């Protein structure tokens, strides 16, 4: 279970960030994290993955508290940032090997998973090229391969569909569903409401740093479409 209690982070010198966010996700949950530009999605995600320090609150994955044991906590998660930060003078393969070594993966386990992911994401030839030659979508695909290869318990993706072509989008949607059905917890931010409506069973809508909707997708959709609800709760923007 991922448990986020009263998470608050305000950037120094501004009153922006996220306030008092609580969230509980269980094995098999796919949660869409939506909100207008600047609502606080990336801030929250970076806090939950342990990149940003936060001012108040508690983040726990199963029994591991992020602040008490960040190393173990981070070993259980797979994260894709909104803008992949990769070393330009590395090949994709060298990057994958670096990440695999950080997660202490065995060579045979890595080979099998990697072959599958490279094939599905059509990256078998590109993996030998330098990152500097990749498009945005190729960098996204490389990050996805690296984060999925170690079977993380918690998958956190910040706007994962941006830059992905339709084949890679289909792969990711199916992979999210199958990982969730095998017990992973998935949280992802997005502006693509149609996909979120179809694949997510949980929903958080942020507005000005506060969760204005935090419910099951089923309950939310009883009231109106996601588009209408989004427009309604962000109408004060
Ligand atoms: N490093 C920073 N210093 C100060 N303010 C920041 C910083 N990063 C983000 N902010 C502000 O915090 C607020 C939340 O930003 P955040 O990037 O979390 O939004 P978001 O919901 O991810 O937006 P988008 O959909 O555009 O990616 C915004 O008002 C933004 O300007």
From TrEMBL:
It comes from the Bacteria. InterPro entries: AAA+_ATPase, ABC_transporter-like_ATP-bd, ABC_transporter-like_CS, ABC_Transporter_VariousFunc, P-loop_NTPase. Transmembrane segments: none annotated. CDD domains: ABC_DR_subfamily_A (cd03230). Gene3D superfamilies: P-loop containing nucleotide triphosphate hydrolases. Keywords: ATP-binding, Nucleotide-binding, Transport. This is ABC transporter. It comes from Oceanobacillus neutriphilus.
């Amino acid at each position: 279970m991922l448990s986020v209690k009263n998470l608050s982070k305000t950037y120094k010198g501004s009153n922006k960030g996220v306030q008092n966010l609580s969230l509980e996700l269980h094995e098999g949950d796919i949660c869409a994290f939506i909100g207008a530009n600047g609502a606080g999605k990336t801030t929250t995600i970076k806090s939950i993955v342990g990149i940003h320090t936060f001012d108040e609150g508690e983040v726990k994955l199963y029994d591991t508290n992020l602040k008490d044991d960040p190393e173990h906590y981070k070993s259980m998660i797979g994260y894709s940032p909104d803008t992949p930060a990769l070393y330009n003078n590395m090949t994709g393969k060298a990057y994958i090997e670096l990440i695999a070594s950080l997660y202490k993966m065995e060579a045979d386990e890595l080979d099998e998973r990697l072959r599958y992911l490279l094939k599905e994401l059509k990256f078998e030839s590109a993996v030998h090229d330098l990152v500097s030659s990749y498009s945005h979508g190729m960098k996204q695909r490389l990050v996805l391969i690296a984060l999925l290869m170690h079977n993380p318990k918690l998958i956190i993706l910040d706007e994962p569909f941006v830059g992905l072509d339709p084949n890679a989008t289909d792969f990711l949607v199916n992979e999210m569903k199958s990982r969730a059905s095998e017990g992973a917890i998935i949280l992802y931010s997005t502006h693509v409401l149609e996909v979120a409506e179809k694949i997510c069973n949980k929903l958080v809508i942020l507005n000005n740093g506060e969760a204005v909707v935090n419910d099951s997708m089923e309950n939310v959709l009883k009231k109106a479409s996601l588009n209408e609800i989004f427009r309604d709760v962000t109408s004060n923007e």
